[in-house]
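Allow me, if you will, to draw on your knowledge of protein folds for a short while. Thank you for your consideration; the sequence and its tokens are set out here:
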Amino acid sequence: MEKVNVPEGTCGDWKVEKFSISKDDWRVISYGGRAPFPGNYTRLKHNGVVVMSDTDIEQRDHYEALHAAKGHILINGLGLGLFLLNCMKKKTVEKATVVELSKEVIQLVGPTYKKLFGDKVEIINEDAFEYKPPKGIRYGMVWHDIWTYICADNYEGMKKLHRKYGRKTDWQGSWCRHEVYRLVNEDKNRNYWR
């Protein structure tokens, strides 16, 4: 996957910044127990908390969905636009509709992709759970990436979005869905007797 080229900037509580991971400290830095390789990266922060980055870890999280991308795609969550960028580079993708809740993220990140891809990218400022796609539309792929952390709490939202788009797409997925399901099942199997 190609890394993003979104310029650094701040808008409200959101910030895009460049950062580096050296060979000396790469084993110490961890995102949810997953350590990225050394290199130069970009990250998106909200109130000082990293929401996403273009590290090799985040790239791997999107491989399956990237492979499935074709035709007119819908992406819930813009973030840095890592997934959008790589989808739009595919010959099989004709258009992308992106639903993003934060106006500030759209202001920080959106212009990069509008400049690169013009009318092939539509960015809508709305809540993924409230957005109503146009009647009769069918997407080649739908990707849900609206969560900051990998946790069991994401499970209900994922179920709701998958039900919402089940008949409107050829393929859909959610960021780290398999890890979330694993956490939900671990929680159900815990022994609460003390």
Observations:
- The mean pLDDT is 90.
- The longest helix spans residues 103-117.
